[in-house]
Amino acid sequence: SRTLRIGLIPGDGIGKEVIPAGRRILEALPASLGLKFEFVNLQAGFETFEKTGAALPDETVQILKSDCDGALFGAVSSPTTPVKGYSSPIVALRKKLDLYANVRPVKTVFNAPKPIDMVIVRENTEDLYVKEEKTYDTPEGKVAEAIKRISQRASSRIATMAGEIALRRQKIRAAGSPSIHKGPLVTITHKSNVLSQTDGLFRATSKEALANPRFLSVAVEEQIVDSMVYKLFRQPEAYDVIVAPNLYGDILSDGAAALVGSLGLVPSANVGEGFAIGEPCHGSAPDIMGQGIANPIATLRSAALMLEFLNEEEAAAKIYAAVDANLSEGKLLSPDLGGKAKTEEVVQDILRRL
Ligand code: NAD
Ligand code: MN
């Protein structure tokens, strides 16, 4: 049997309502899996900042680094006007733990009228987000510039991860999860027709990484990002795994989340070498906090996704199946999905199916 130590970082707003649900689903996994959990409660977020002066206390980072196998992160509120000294703890965590990939599955239930089952694998350390900007004056007025940095190393490891994810998804399908996809497919996204050096390097490096013999069974295609957006909205069922540099990945993954009805359904994971943080895509939802009606499914799926990256595919598959069964039946749905169920009722229904 294996014991996993999981850091729990609820953060702000509904983060505090959904992270306990994530803990409960992990605790409710069948004993036959031989998986045990120990949980460590950790602080981060705007409330933490107001209390302690740090949005991401050093202690949180240290415990995650030295003492945890993975973590669940809820959501944090950002002040509407910039507050001195405050910056997003999740962005800082990605840097400090070198979580170089952001992975976002977007999936409807199998029997949906228009089924979708894709995952966007976004490079998370470079591209325009290195934030090397400058502004200077010219006789015609100000000019601002930003560095777009693409490296062979980062492109290669993100494409390799996309290949691994494609293989793993195929394995989970083969184990009996119904799927709209026949075989594993990775779509490389870029704009190398215009940015021949930066995106050109991403494209060439990704292709090379995916040409590795261990991805022999994975079909590889490429697509220019703007036409990709068109196809993503017209024909989303065509995608399995999408790999993209940071900026395109950010935009595509938010856009794709809109395809499935509610932010309350969409999970993500921030993944590095041997460490993963599951994180629902939604924010702290101040408009519904405290009412007990937040949809816990994004968090439950994030817990499953974290488990996938900790090599616990079977446990992950059980959570996905229980969530899908709840959604397919459609009797106990939270208000964001048009239902009347409270968070607690949704959680209990899913735990019952586990
Ligand atoms: P949001 O995701 O919090 O909410 C958008 C809308 O979706 C709201 O109407 C909300 O009620 C609804 N919603 C979100 N999650 C839901 C769930 N689980 N169940 C039911 N309904 C849900 O985005 P926002 O309103 O733009 O931002 C609110 C705060 O969250 C801001 O302070 C913002 O900075 C922060 N935020 C944080 C993250 C993060 O931590 N990763 C992401 C986005 C926004
Ligand atoms: Mn985004």
Automatic annotation (TrEMBL):
Superkingdom, according to UniProt? Eukaryota
UniProt keywords, alphabetically? Amino-acid biosynthesis, Lysine biosynthesis, Magnesium, Metal-binding, NAD, Oxidoreductase, Phosphoprotein
GO terms for CC?
Answer: mitochondrion
Isopropylmalate dehydrogenase-like domain mapped to chain residues: 5-350
Tell me which PROSITE patterns the record gives. IDH_IMDH (PS00470)
Task: Describe which pathway this protein belongs to, using the record's wording.
Answer: Amino-acid biosynthesis; L-lysine biosynthesis via AAA pathway; L-alpha-aminoadipate from 2-oxoglutarate: step 4/5
Q: Which InterPro entries match?
A: IsoCit/isopropylmalate_DH_CS, IsoPropMal-DH-like_dom
Q: EC number(s) on record?
A: 1.1.1.87
What reaction does this catalyse?
A: (2R,3S)-homoisocitrate + NAD(+) = 2-oxoadipate + CO2 + NADH
- The answer on whether this UniProt entry bears the keyword Metal-binding reads yes
The Swiss-Prot or TrEMBL record lists the needed cofactor(s) as: Mg(2+)
**Molecular-function annotations in GO:** homoisocitrate dehydrogenase activity; isocitrate dehydrogenase (NAD+) activity; magnesium ion binding; NAD binding
The GO annotation for biological process reads:
isocitrate metabolic process; lysine biosynthetic process; tricarboxylic acid cycle
Keyword Phosphoprotein listed? The answer is yes
So what family is this one in? Belongs to the isocitrate and isopropylmalate dehydrogenases family.
Q: What is this protein called?
A: homoisocitrate dehydrogenase
Q: Which organism is it from?
A: Rhypophila decipiens
